[in-house]
Structure formats: C-alpha cells, structure tokens
Amino acid sequence: TFPVKLWLLVNSPCVQSVRWDAHGEGVFIDQGLFEQELLDVGPAAAGEEELFKTRNFSSIIRQLNLYGFYKVLVSPSGSAVGSGPRPDTAGDDAGYTRGPLHHFWNPLFRYDRPDLLIKIKRLTKANREKLDAGLNVTSR
Q1: What's the chain's average pLDDT?
Q2: Which domains does the chain have, with CATH numbers?
C-alpha cells in the first residue's frame, strides 16, 4: 500500500528526497528531488521497476491526503510554521535545494512505530461514513 511504500522510501539510505523530520513524527519531501529521483525514472533506468504508477507529483500529494496525511506549512528557512498538528517538528531540516519542500504529518506514521502502518486506511467516501458512524474500517 501507499503508506508502506512511503515508509520504505523514508527509511532507505538510497533515497534522498524523502526523510523524517527531527522528531520522527512527520516526513519532509523535496518535490524537485522526488520528481527527479522517483517519478522521472522509467522502468528501463538501472533495471528498476517503477515504484509509483504516476509521474505526476500532484498525484502523490493526493495519495498522501487520501491516507490521512496533513500538510504542515514550512517557512523558506525550512522550519515548520502555521497551525499544523506538530508545528515544531521541523528542527534543522533545511537541507533541500532542488524544489519546494513539503512537510506531511499523520498521527499513525512514526519512525519508532512501524506497527501503526496497518492502521492507516485510505479515506474513501464509504470509509469516512464508517468512521463517522464509529464502525471499523478494513483496508483494501
């Protein structure tokens, strides 16, 4: 699923475009580097299979939103600002230079809690209705 792919990316030493914030409670995504590193690479490059079915970064953002990730605003200096759930988690994570820096947070996506990944569900209309009614939502 998408959260598992994101977990693998953020923990991979080979991927530079996605990394944990200072507290391991959110992820930073360098859009330009992400597009270059993961979306522009075709299956023929380096003999690798495509990780995502899209080459459009806005589709990645949509997937993050569908899986309950919230965007935390990031100032030009790289620190998180605004009314996001964890505004102080950015710390000294201003090392990106290739594109816009995005900071996403999900209460179930944490560095120290891989066991919570199975609880991240895709927020379809039907799933939202079940959650609102207090029912259990199963993954696809």
Answers
A1: 77
A2: 2-76+98-133 (1.10.10.10)
